[in-house]
């Protein structure tokens, strides 16, 4: 029994030594294993508290339809950042670090940036700007300068999650939204006008083309038919082989986020309507003009003369 107590006592002293042993020093403050464990516990508790608050906001948004879910998402992300920042300060204070010394803070920030955190800081600040300015919200359908299109699912510390219509998840750095050009198709409202180009043969009656185009537009479920936003057909040019038109339609909000599928539906309906009225969609045509002297060059006498010249 005495040996067991002796082993336990030695183990306790060994653990106490490991917990209080100095791992490294920061600004003359000794950092121990126990201090690091305390910081980790504080950060985990803050993370759990943040997730709890965000779930509460989500339930509140579900029960109250007068509040925009995007606004509550922005509020939740800002609360998350504040809680994590305060918990980090609290944990580091428990280690004995004095944040009243601004020189220390400036030195720590400089060291962090020097170790390659410029990109991380830039993305973090860009994410805060996006949340505060609300130039980008969860649920928006965006198109980046690189050509990526999709719906915004999450705005995180470093990057924003965009899901394309092919269900491909793409992580885009937040700084790309601030420094680059971004097209937000649903920033102010969810309505958008779509132009579908098509061409018909020369000589086709214009009013018949317009009738077929409007009939095609109204046969597609994505078309708005409100006053002032009726579908229309515009003549836009005279091409080499066809008269060029555009089918102009206003889309319902759900269709705005599916541009590829929507355009395919209108092209399908246009082809059906034009065939119904026997309107020709022409192939590219080229006229070949032969000069009068061409046949003379190919006549037998000229060929014989050419052969005689070569023999001479």
Major β-sheet profile = 5 strands, antiparallel
Please list the strands of the largest sheet in the order they lie side by side.
Answer: 6-5-4-3-7
- CATH T-level fold name of the largest domain: Alpha-Beta Plaits
Average per-residue pLDDT, rounded, comes to: 78
Helicity range: 40-55%
- Structural class determined from secondary elements: alpha+beta
- Work out the helix count: 10
Which spans of ≥5 residues are poorly predicted at pLDDT below 50? none
Q: How many domains would you count in the coordinates?
A: 3
Rg from C-alpha positions? Answer: 35 Å
Question: How would you classify the quaternary structure?
Answer: single chain
CATH classification class of the largest domain: Alpha Beta
Provide structural commentary.
This protein has 312 residues and is α+β, with helices and mostly antiparallel strands. The chain has three domains: 18-100, no CATH class; 141-184, SH3 type barrels; 189-312, Alpha-Beta Plaits (2-Layer Sandwich). The chain has ten helices and ten strands. It has helices at 2-20, 33-63, 69-94, 102-133, 174-179, 206-218, 253-256, 259-276, 294-297, 300-311, and strands at residues 22-26, 29-32, 141-144, 149-155, 159-163, 169-173, 182-184, 192-200, 232-238, 243-251. The strands form three sheets. A five-stranded antiparallel beta sheet has the order 6-5-4-3-7. A hairpin with a 2-residue loop joins β1 and β2 (29-32). It is elongated, with a radius of gyration of 35 Å.
């Amino acid at each position: 029994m005495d040996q067991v107590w002796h082993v336990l006592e030695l183990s306790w002293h060994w653990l106490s030594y490991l917990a209080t042993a100095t791992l490294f020093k920061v600004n003359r403050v000794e950092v121990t294993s126990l201090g690091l464990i305390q910081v980790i516990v504080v950060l985990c508790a803050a993370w759990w508290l943040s997730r709890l608050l965000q779930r509460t906001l989500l339930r509140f948004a579900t029960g109250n339809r007068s509040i925009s879910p995007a606004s509550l998402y922005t509020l939740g992300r800002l609360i998350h950042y504040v809680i994590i920042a305060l918990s980090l300060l609290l944990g580091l204070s428990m280690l004995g670090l004095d944040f009243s010394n601004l020189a220390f803070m400036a030195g720590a920030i400089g060291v962090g940036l020097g170790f390659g955190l410029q990109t991380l800081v830039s993305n973090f600040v860009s994410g805060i700007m996006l949340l505060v300015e609300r130039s980008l919200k969860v649920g928006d359908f965006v198109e980046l300068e690189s050509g990526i299109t999709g719906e915004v699912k999450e705005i995180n510390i470093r990057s924003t999650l965009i899901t394309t219509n092919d269900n491909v998840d793409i992580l885009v750095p937040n700084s790309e939204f601030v420094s680059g050009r971004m097209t937000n198709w649903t920033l102010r409202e969810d309505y958008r006008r779509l132009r579908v180009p098509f061409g018909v043969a020369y000589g086709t009656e214009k009013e018949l083309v317009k009738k077929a185009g409007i009939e095609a537009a109204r046969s597609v479920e994505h078309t708005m038919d409100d006053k002032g936003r009726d579908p229309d057909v515009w003549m836009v040019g005279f091409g080499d082989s066809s008269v060029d038109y555009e089918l102009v339609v206003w889309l319902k909000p759900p269709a705005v986020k599916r541009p590829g599928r929507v355009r395919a539906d209108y092209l399908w309906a246009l082809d059906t309507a034009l065939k119904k009225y026997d309107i020709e969609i022409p192939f590219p045509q080229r006229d070949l003009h032969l000069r009068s002297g061409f046949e003379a060059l190919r006549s037998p006498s000229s060929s014989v003369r050419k052969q005689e010249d070569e023999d001479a």
